[in-house]
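name: query_chain
kind: protein
chains: 1
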Amino acid sequence: MARLLTGIALGAASAFMLDPQQGRRRRALVRDKMLRGAVWDDVLVGRVRARLGRYVSHTHAVRVSARNGVVTLTGDVLAREHPSLVRALRMVSGVTDLDDRLDVHTSSEGISSLQGGVPPSGQRPELLQARWAPGTRALAGGTGALLVVYGLARGGLKGIAALAGGAALLARAKVNHT
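structure:
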């Protein structure tokens, strides 16, 4: 009986992975999950530099290097930006450790690399992004549809408010393609 169940499981897994329509995508997902921690150093530096601009006002003052998943930060940074920067960079995909060698300054006075700059924007919540991910669109659309149904069934002032909010969510989810 165990051999039969093993055979069925192997056959189902093979059919799932070798499916002509979705098999390539499924195999790529499995490959990516197996190699999740393995990232080229230059790719990792690019990811960190991309995140850097959201948390520091002087991106040119921070130098980034990576070796085998360990990211090293050197240069100058303002004290008010340092904690959020380190926290955000530890969560970048592929970073196994962060070697923080930054010189932290309370003010930019007298530090040439900290002159000028653009205030950091921080990471925006998903609902405030210009483009929503497909999952967010589906969730917002579903919530909008439920609010519309509730508003139609409820009636009155609360029903009108729910209907308007639901219609707005549905419209935003519909036109917000990634």
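note: The radius of gyration is 24 Å.
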